[in-house]
Amino acid sequence: MTDKIVTMVQPTDSGPPDLLDRRSRPLRDLRISVMDRCNFRCPYCMPEDKYHKDFQFLKSTERLSFEEILRLAHIFSGLGVHKLRLTGGEPLLRPGIADLVGDLSHVPGIDDVALTTNGILLAQHAAALKAAGLSRVTVSLDSLNEEVFLMMSGGRGSTGQVLEGIAAALTAGLTPIKINTVVKRGVNEHTVLDLVDRFRDTGVIVRFIEYMDVGTINHWKRSDCVPSRELLAMIGARWPLTAVKANYHGEVAERYRFDDGVGEVGFISSVSEPFCGSCTRVRLSSDGQLFTCLFASRGTDLRNPLRAGASDDELRALVRGIWGAREDRYSELRASQRKDDKDGKVEMYYIGG
Ligand SMILES: C[S@@+](CC[C@H](N)C(=O)[O-])C[C@H]1O[C@@H](n2cnc3c(N)ncnc32)[C@H](O)[C@@H]1O
Ligand code: SF4
Question: pTM of the predicted model, to two decimals?
Answer without folding.
Answer: 0.92
